[in-house]
């Protein structure tokens, strides 16, 4: 997933070196098949504490599986602090290497 736009920040992947940027009101976290769900969950929890919302994007079944697991783990992390979150899934078109792909977008907000 190199040269991806608007996918902004890879989490839980030791090979990822994309700088973080804010988009809209939620920070965008990019998840790959190799992302560790606990690392992504920590990133989601941190962004939720800081901004109140986060956006997770994934392309493909493996990456989406890791993203969903990360949301569940983040929900457990945040519930210990009295923060309840919801996840709103949708599709989003992204351009990767000048090729259009459809990604899963998970918007995470406080309940």
Automatic annotation (TrEMBL):
Residues 15-25 have a biased composition (Polar residues). Gene3D superfamilies: Alba-like domain. One of its GO terms (molecular function) is nucleic acid binding. Residues 1-33 are annotated as: Disordered. It holds the Pfam family SpoVS. It comes from the Bacteria. Signal peptide: none annotated. This is Stage V sporulation protein S.
């Amino acid at each position: 997933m190199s040269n991806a736009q608007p996918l902004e920040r890879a989490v839980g992947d030791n090979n990822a070196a994309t700088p973080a940027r804010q988009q809209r009101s939620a920070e965008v976290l990019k998840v790959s098949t190799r992302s560790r769900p606990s690392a992504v969950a920590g990133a989601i929890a941190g962004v939720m504490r800081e901004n109140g919302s986060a956006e997770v994007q994934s392309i493909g079944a493996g990456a989406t599986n890791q993203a969903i697991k990360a949301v569940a783990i983040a929900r457990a992390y945040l519930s210990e602090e009295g923060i309840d979150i919801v996840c709103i899934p949708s599709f989003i078109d992204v351009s990767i290497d000048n090729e259009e792909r459809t990604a899963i977008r998970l918007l995470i907000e406080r309940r």
